[in-house]
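#data-curation
PF: Archiving a pair of folding outputs for the training set. Convention for this channel: one message per protein, sequence first, structure tokens after, nothing in between. First:
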Amino acid sequence: METEDTEELDRINKEEILRERADLMQVPILETTNLGKHIEGLFFMLSGEKYAIDSTSVSEVIQISEITPLPCTPAFLRGIINLRGKILSIIDIKSFLNLKGDRDVKLNKVIIVNHNDIEIGILTDEIVGNEKIYLDTLQKNLSTIIDIPENIVVGVSEENLIVIDIQKLLSNEKIIVNEHV
């Protein structure tokens, strides 16, 4: 009888220890319902900084090996590619945004984006991933943070993620090349 009582006490002690450990290791679940409006962002790297765009504007992410240069175009327009019979302009977004850093991007990471019948490819250093971005948590006053034109930036997160409004980028007058030579 005494061994049964000892075994029962050992079992109860073990359960208490396990319960205490479980309570200590418990991670609170974040309430995401009160964080407001969000977008699903595609994250990418430019000059060591993390950027994101709304993934609803992204057609696909591709790898390329060659860009055909176009004469008489702005420096940020790296050239064109043939994507399954469709000719697309490829923009060096680092050059467009006047970012510091290496301008020689390996020609293999391109995000194909579209808005209002405009479809272009954007060169990136690296595709990082995607996740939700809560717009209410972004800092909107950017004049002291970054040198990117504020009209194309949605905001900056606490983690210094810069969210770009791809619709405003594609509507920017610099993107539309309408020069006669």
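PF: Second:
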Amino acid sequence: MTAACEALDQAPALTSAEMATLRDRVKSSNVNDTSFLATDYLNHFNEIIMLMEMVPSMPDCLEDAMEWRPKSYQEHFRDSGLGDADLTIMAYENAPASYREPFDMLVTEMNERIAAGLHILESKISAGAMESLDAWNEKILQDLNGRIERLSAIINATAPANSQDEVDSLFAD
């Protein structure tokens, strides 16, 4: 079981009245009242994507990009300074599994792809392979931007929610 799934299992379940109250509270916040997720989390990924976009024309930006570290949803909002960070975290922790599980899996994939992409860029620059740097960077960015679009669709509840069977199959060995 992944850490994300374990966290879901450990989160105390809200009563139906508490869920209704939470749903009402998120309606006046930056949290989607269907998915219980917030698009502000995407800023964490947009930051590294912007840095990676600059690397081919300014290879020195790779040093800044290499300092980027993944942050969990909760870490991002705790560090954000947003006034409704606690509500945003509470909503995430009570998000429907049909949104939260594919979201968490995609976040994990993003973190892995970013690390791999940075490694490739670092290798290309170290080897002096500047002629292929643009092409590799374009592939990496295209992949990451596609995943950002999918995350956004999940957050905004415009992507179809997975059935429980589909979610379970994602975690099958």
